[in-house]
């Protein structure tokens, strides 16, 4: 009998101890955090979207890093035969243009990539005359569109090159107007153009250049 009373007493003490422990846990537990609904919460940053230009010939300056730009993937199937690299016509505004001298090119289809480089002295670049109030027009031949362009200029003799910010062109445009180099005297002007064929089966880039007669200061 004594042993049974001891067992019952032990079970009662254990039960009371567990009850006290559970009550203590509930009393000291931290409340669960409630998500804030404050109107001042900072939204997560979305992708950068460049505004479309109202005129296909007007560029949109991209403040980002040019080297991170990627052309769209070419559509399949690949076109039959080799890719014919398009010419780039350069003019001063609506005036008569010249075909820019071509440098290195890289073009990609669904199945292959072809690249060319101009080693050593190539053909001389054609000349154009411009003022600082003019705009230079770059136009790709029929069947292609310009996606992006970046310009470079340097004096015809000596050092001192400039690099322009890359600009994105409104989709579907075959031309873009860019600034005249901000310098006096004769200069070389070069551009890298990113291109997409209108059927989407070829994408790539081409480097081209011309020489410019620019007015001297006060001229």
Description:
It is a single chain. The protein has 219 residues and is mainly beta. The chain has a single domain (60-214), classed as Immunoglobulin-like. It is 12% helix and 35% strand. The strands form two sheets. Strands 1, 4, 5, 6, 8, 9, 10, 12 and 13 form a nine-stranded mixed β-sheet that branches. A four-stranded antiparallel β-sheet has the order 3-2-7-11, with no helix packed on it. The model is unreliable at 1-57 and 60-66 (pLDDT under 50).
Topology:
Blueprint: H1 2-28, E1 60-61, E2 88-92, E3 97-99, E4 101-108, E5 113-116, E6 127-129, E7 135-140, E8 144-155, E9 162-163, E10 167-168, E11 175-179, E12 185-197, E13 203-214
Q: How would you describe the shape?
A: globular
Measured as a percent range, the helix fraction is 10-25%
Structural class: mainly beta
Let me know the largest β-sheet.
9 strands, mixed
Rg to the nearest angstrom?
A: 34 Å
Report, as a whole number of angstroms, the end-to-end distance. Answer: 124 Å
Helix-strand pattern? HEEEEEEEEEEEEE
| Tally of distinct domains | 1
Low-confidence stretches: 1-57, 60-66
Q: Helical stretch count?
A: 1
What's the count of strands? 13
Mean pLDDT: 77
CATH topology: Immunoglobulin-like
């Amino acid at each position: 009998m004594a042993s049974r009373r001891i067992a019952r007493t032990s079970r009662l003490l254990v039960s009371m101890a567990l009850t006290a422990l559970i009550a203590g846990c509930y009393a000291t537990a931290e409340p669960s955090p409630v998500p804030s609904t404050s109107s001042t919460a900072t939204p997560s940053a979305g992708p950068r979207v460049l505004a479309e230009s109202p005129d296909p010939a007007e560029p949109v300056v991209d403040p980002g890093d040019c080297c991170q730009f990627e052309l769209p993937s070419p559509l399949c199937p690949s076109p039959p035969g080799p890719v014919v690299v398009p010419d780039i016509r350069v003019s001063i505004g609506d005036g008569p243009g010249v075909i820019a001298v071509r440098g290195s090119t890289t073009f990609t289809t669904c199945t292959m990539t072809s690249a060319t480089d101009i080693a050593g002295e190539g053909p001389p670049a054609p000349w154009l005359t411009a003022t600082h109030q003019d705009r230079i027009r770059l136009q790709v031949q029929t069947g292609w569109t310009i996606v992006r362009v970046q310009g470079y200029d340097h004096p015809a003799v000596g050092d001192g090159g400039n690099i322009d910010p890359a600009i994105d062109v409104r989709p579907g445009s075959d031309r873009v107007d860019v600034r005249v180099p901000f310098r006096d005297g004769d200069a070389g002007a070069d551009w890298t153009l990113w291109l997409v064929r209108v059927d989407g089966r070829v994408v790539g880039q081409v480097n081209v250049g011309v020489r410019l007669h620019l007015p001297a200061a006060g001229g």
